[in-house]
Amino acid sequence: MTFADAPIAADSFGKLNAGGLRLGLVDTSDRDAFAAWIQADSRGFHEGRVAEKQIDEQLQDVAYRRTTGVWDDSMTDAATPVATVSSWPTPLTLPGETSVSAWAISSVTVAPTHQRRGIARALLEAELRTAHSLGIPLAILTVSEATIYSRFGFAPTTMTADLEIDTRRASWTGPAASGRVQFISLEQLQSVGRGVAERARRGVPGEIELDDYLWGRLIGLLGDAKDEAKNLRAVIYHDAAGAPQGFALYRLASHATDFAAHTATVEHLCTVTDDAYAGLWRYLLELPLVTTVSAPLRSVDEPLIWQVTDSRAVRTTHRRDHLWARILDVTAALEARRYSAPGRIALDVTDRLGFAHGRVLIAVDATGTAQVSPLDGLEHNGEAPADAASLALTVNDLGALYLGGVSARTLVRAGRITELRPGSADAVDATFHSPATPWLSSWF
Ligand SMILES: CC(=O)SCCNC(=O)CCNC(=O)[C@H](O)C(C)(C)COP(=O)(O)OP(=O)(O)OC[C@H]1O[C@@H](n2cnc3c(N)ncnc32)[C@H](O)[C@@H]1OP(=O)(O)O
């Protein structure tokens, strides 16, 4: 048994079955069955019918994922599922450049003909049970709406910012890069850039490993972006020793009346070193005939703001949640990351679905490594040790704190977390702080 064919959670199956619906796995080697699922997924996101060549791409690159559907056998088109979800385990980078296996969930759709009768709830609960039964300590997703997933124990754990830069005001003041920027075809980038992206993601908490499909889509060679790829330009940065250390993908759009006022939209900018970061940003800001550089989905803590003459020329046009996390196994999740300060923290975690419910003690040593033990065990007699910080919180807020990008003090002020001992939020913030700002630079 693998993650892809692990049994469907009986509880969710029974609930949907009672309503005349069938929850099951798609045999992704069966082209017709998988194609029907792909069409349902696309329809669920209000996208067009998927072309045969895109179905072929998904057959090749997405078939390995766990692919779940819900069928209504009373429908005229009974072969097309009325609901979809896709999931797979992926390494998630954590503070301290460690990583954990996370259950990525995507393609959650319910047909408008079948909405609001508990299908998504059954699917999500089934996903969480499956991940938990496979020993995966947390689930992650990127969301269409911020209103859906809290009820399942998820919370935003990385934030993102859309930037817009007025290049007439933003002259470069950052360091001079040692290497050089050159154009590269998307096909060349597909192989050369992959290693760069992989090295970059290992240093940033919140990044995941991109599978072949996500990588191909990111660089415009697969999926919806394919037809638009002709407008994409790719540049790669090699350091002084000739090693690739970053790349950027951007597209140019002309101004309606002023040819000297193009907009460059940075679809992706990925760097391993600060030197590559400086080299690529400077290149983008100095593009001829360009007055606006638009950069969606950036980190909320970009050094760029400190590298131009006028920091107000770099505007954040939108700041929002991006990666959501749902802890399923508190001990495994918390022991996987590294911490910024030693200390002892007692957590009283509430989880309506039960997975993470309970009281634990986190003991962080001088190396930043944690040991987590149940507080209800005999050793602690149910009491938090006198020297421990102590908080009561929901599993959602534990997910929000997990990568160190959201502060416990803020969540206490928001009335979401309760300090059981004064000063506990500050102690948690010192310990959970991540030196690298958490960020996920793509969608999945
Ligand atoms: C990870 C991802 O894939 S994100 C993508 C999510 N999918 C989309 O945006 C595609 C378009 N939307 C849809 O396909 C559907 O409307 C879904 C998946 C959002 C919801 O499916 P449904 O089967 O209608 O949801 P279901 O009936 O199970 O509702 C479960 C709960 O969520 C709530 N809910 C459902 N949709 C929404 C919404 N859009 N906003 C807020 N709450 C919602 C319901 O009220 C219900 O609440 P409760 O159980 O706490 O009382």
TrEMBL record:
Pfam families, A to Z: Acetyltransf_17, Acetyltransf_9, SCP2_2
Entry's transmembrane regions: none
Keyword Acyltransferase: yes
Residues making up the signal peptide according to the UniProt record: none
Keyword Transferase found: yes
Active site: Y149, F444
Residues engaged in binding acetyl-CoA: V108, T109, V110, R116, R117, G118, I119, A120, R121, S144, E145
Domain N-acetyltransferase: 21-175
InterPro entries membership: Acetyltransf_17, Acetyltransferase_Eis, Acyl_CoA_acyltransferase, Eis_dom, GNAT_dom, NAcTrfase_Eis, SCP2_sterol-bd_dom_sf
PANTHER family listed in its UniProt record: N-ACETYLTRANSFERASE EIS (PTHR37817:SF1)
Family: Belongs to the acetyltransferase Eis family.
NCBIfam families listed in its UniProt record: PRK01346.1-4
Subunit structure, as described in the record: Homohexamer; trimer of dimers.
Protein name (database record): GNAT family N-acetyltransferase
